[in-house]
Amino acid sequence: MKVWIDKEKCTGCELCLGSCPYDAIEIAGQVAVINDRCTxxxxxxxxxxxxxxLSDREEIKPVDLSGYKGVWVFAEHRDGVMNKGSLxxxxxxxxxxxxxxxxxxxxxxSDKTTDLITELSKYGxxxxxFASHKDLKTYQxxxxxxxxxxxxxxxxxxxxxxxxxLTGRDLAPRIAQKLRVGLTxxxxxxxxxxxxxxxxxxxxxxxxxxMATIISPRTRPQMATVRPGVMKPVMPSASGKTKxxxxxxxxxxxNKKDIRTKILEVxxxxxxxxxxxxxxxxxxxxxxxxxxxxxxxxxxxxxxIGGEVAGTRVVVEKGWMPQERQIGQTxxxxxxxxxxxxxxxxxxxxxxxxxxxxxxxxxxxxxxxxLFDIADYKIVGDIFEIVPxxxxxxxxx
Length: 397
What we know:
- It contains eight helices and 21 strands.
- By secondary structure, it is of the alpha/beta class.
- It has three domains: about 1-55, Alpha-Beta Plaits (2-Layer Sandwich); about 65-260, HUPs (Rossmann fold, 3-Layer(aba) Sandwich); about 275-395, Rossmann fold (3-Layer(aba) Sandwich), CATH 3.40.50.
- It is globular, with a radius of gyration of 25 Å.
- The model has no long low-confidence stretch (mean pLDDT about 90).
């Protein structure tokens, strides 16, 4: 969106200066001027009492919000196995549904939906909207986005949530664009405003230095992608009953013309590291590991204990570990049974990424390290003495 100043209307009152979070407005020659820091966010548009701040944004037509009901979760899966992030969203969706007094539903696309429907029914969802076709076996952008957009337009949910996986980050923006609604990406918290009923979507902003809460008060559905690992996954019903969920066949929304490529074969890449968000044990390294040699030391401990290695933002920026290993507000959020932090002081950004860990063990020479405040076990000492000793003890055992 482009923003500019009508110099004939501007009086230089300076009222607009405080409205811009980017300091993109300044006074020059007794009139306001938009500088190159402007992002087009529109925060200044309604501040000017003289109507001197103009933009090319489209006017949003009023929508009857009362016609939109229900909390929906996109059920992501691969090879017939449900994505952990989607199960986390189902747990979150239950809470949002209770607050709104609305139903929790899921939307599912696959070639064979029977087993997945049976599994999803165990998680207390009220309705399962599904589309089944042999060409929906593997995710394809156009087919999935067009099909789900059609289902949403027909049944009008109030909220639609996606896990912020590679698939979710590709799919959700395309659906939002087709529906002409907003999308908040990479959320770490979702709640309902008790007064308005709007979805409060919280996510890191400005490089993780602040947390922004975003709402979509004028359009529906409210859409968000949620960072995997920040919420606890829902547990299936112990009884295994599947009668509660109402099954709604939406296969008519799929158009074979949306399949523009033919997948001949799927080849799984052999990666050096496993998926951190599935790891039961994680060995984390911070600035205190000093170099790539420190990473190798952590890898030896991980091998001995059956875990994975990860790092803080500093470790990734220095090139000691790849980006996919970063834990924290600007990286991954994880929920292992055991997290061993080695040489990590514990900034608030890093702590946000491990808050759902079962047990936290912190090793640091600084007895006042912030991470000790949330650690279950605290070891004050040199990691280059303690980690090798622990590795040796585990191997001998």
